[in-house]
Amino acid sequence: MDILADKLTRVVEENIQSNLPRPSREEAEAAIRTLLLWIGENPDREGLKDTPRRVIKAYDELFAGYDEDPYDALKRTFEEVGGYDDMVLVRDIPFSSFCEHHMLPFIGKAHVAYYPADGVVGLSKLARTIDTFAKRLQTQEHMTAQIVTAIDDAMSPRGIAVHIEAEHQCMALRGIKKHGASTITTRFTGIFQDEPTEQLRFLTLIKS
Fold it and tell me: CATH for 23-62?
């Protein structure tokens, strides 16, 4: 049921995004200028004259995930694996994303494992899929579920395990200001969900 809910959420999000008009670059830069005025700055002073342009240019990179299809990276699989049917694990994948509540970054690493069914995917493709979801406004919980759903939809493996740990700057720089606190999210399907020993094996491998 969780996977079905994730699929329905994704469809709703895509429909919302496609129906909203996208402002022009000039309008986006004007919005940054307004924010500079709001915090009490002078956007016409030398150091800030080009800031709206720079910010929007940075956003092109930081939020590139909105223009990317996470399924593109997972389309091609390889079936010639010599009969290998054990766990495939890619760990310590670094990522950075932005909290959708405060638009402040959260930075961490992801670990992804799966049990192949009909083939395997290039290892770098898993990292690319993570980047696509990370380069959007996110919650860590939602991003974890999205990664699992994408891998499941594209490959239908016998089981998926995703473990994400990150430090959220909305918690470190504002509010309770707890530097160094980490948030951990996990999601298991198939073999990993049904067999506690497989969960333990996965967790042991990512920390070894």
Answer: 1.10.286.10
